[in-house]
């Protein structure tokens, strides 16, 4: 058990890890993204595959160097990638989420108000029909 | 909607996903013939998705401004964790990547006093605590199955009792009056609601392949489901408005025109259901519209709650009028109306209470289970409750049934005795009085007359019973 710790402690050089992911992972990713074209960088359907490969690559390098994945360097690496390639994309555009409150509130309040109006109308009309009789 | 409907549905969805062996194999009906490792690549895709969103968030969120040590925001491989002050445990809901992970449980991560994330002592790597995510899943699965079958049984029982009540109301013409007409419409809407719910529970919920394919038919089913839910509560509102108009506005006068009630009960619920469908299609177009994790559901539930509230106030007003104003002047009628109102007054809170207590699911495990059972009974056995209170416990219905029963008994006795030739002449005398009682009172529609003639006709029934005995 302690041998394992020893290997883990000595085998994972952070500097080495940083260097390797930039060389072996970032370069193919750069080429691929340039191939896709800057216009489509925010299109998740296009970039999904490349991004997945980048992730797999960083994990593979971590395994080779006996580092655990993810780690602090991976965080920094991906934050840098995001700030360069995905900075202008709409945030969480691919998640299902509710519309903003300015849209949601009218959608909810209008049926409620119409309900109350309709109820008042029915009460008024049934009152009137009594008057006729 | 609220967390409990959320957790109810999640339990049901959880139980579906616990049958992975059936869905992980090759799907021969799918023309693209996906491979066996479909499940894994789908899971992988979800994780990559979450990772992307996490780094986006980490990039855009403002830097940590508070004083003191803190742990940096990080992606731990499954979930995103924000900047956390030192010495604090932060928690969030478990992810739903794996079939045995329960998204209602919490995963936690500890930031120690030195401003570093907790490292597991055995592996010395930063470690988040996901143990709660799959530790209770087998028990929850069992309970989810029980609740699922309870829901189906509840709706089946409701349909049966409602159809029997409708049969009673249609058969006994003597009972017909405007209020009974409203009851018939209410029962019919409950029957349709239960039918659509059972269809949804049996065809869509246990069928992840269908949900993945996301055909238009399951969205149409969901639309009709929401429409019928609206119809249920709006017909309850119609009952309340009818009683209110009858008692408070135009005291014990004659017939009202029912056209507006039909419009409010059957026509108006199309409005919130359509708006919900349009909003859902535009803003939250998930597969089969099954997710309950959206406030867009309030487009339907908001008007329903408004209707319940209005109904409740109408009924309170009716009780107030009956108790204060009519006590002295129209004593007999006010008693009878009190009985009529009592049934509606019991039902409206019972139907509405699920909306009130739904946000407060207890944290304790046992209390939470009891809460789930009670909520499921309140939600799925409503039709049975409505049929029982409005029909089976109704004095007039019971009287009509008793009369019919005694009539059948005497007819049966008469048929047996007709075989004996010695006593034929006396039976022609009794057969005249055996004419069904309700034929004499066929035309009365007024609630008031209904009340009065019940006593008369019961006396006649007793008399005819005596002569034939």
Account of the protein in words:
- Chain B: One of its GO terms (molecular function) is calcitonin receptor activity.
- The complex is a heterodimer of chains A (133) and B (469).
- By secondary structure, chain A is mainly alpha-helical.
- Chain A is built from 5 helices and no strands.
- The N terminus of chain A is likely disordered.
- By secondary structure, chain B is mainly α.
- In chain B, strand 2 and strand 3 form a beta hairpin.
- Helix content of chain B is 66%, strand content 4%.
- Chains A and B meet through helix 1, helix 3, helix 4 and helix 5 of A and helix 3, strand 2, helix 7, helix 8 and helix 9 of B.
Task: Show the helix and strand layout.
The complex is a heterodimer of chains A (133) and B (469).
Chain A: H1 2-11, H2 14-36, H3 44-64, H4 72-85, H5 101-132
Helix pairs in contact in A: 2-3
Chain B: H1 3-17, H2 20-23, H3 38-60, E1 70-71, E2 74-75, E3 80-81, E4 84-85, E5 88-93, E6 106-111, H4 137-171, H5 178-204, H6 208-213, H7 216-249, H8 259-267, H9 270-283, H10 298-324, H11 326-329, H12 331-357, H13 365-380, H14 382-392, H15 395-418, H16 424-433, H17 447-468
Antiparallel strand pairs in B: 1-4, 2-3, 5-6
Share of β-strand residues of chain B: under 5%
Secondary-structure element order of chain B, N to C: HHHEEEEEEHHHHHHHHHHHHHH
Q: By CATH's scheme, which homologous superfamily of the largest domain in chain A applies?
A: Receptor activity modifying family
Shape of chain B: elongated
CATH hierarchy: architecture of the largest domain in chain B: Up-down Bundle
Oligomer: heterodimer
Report how far the terminal alpha carbons of chain B are from each other. 61 Å
Number of spatially distinct domains of chain A: 2
Distance between the termini of chain A: 95 Å
Strand arrangement, major sheet of chain B: 1-4
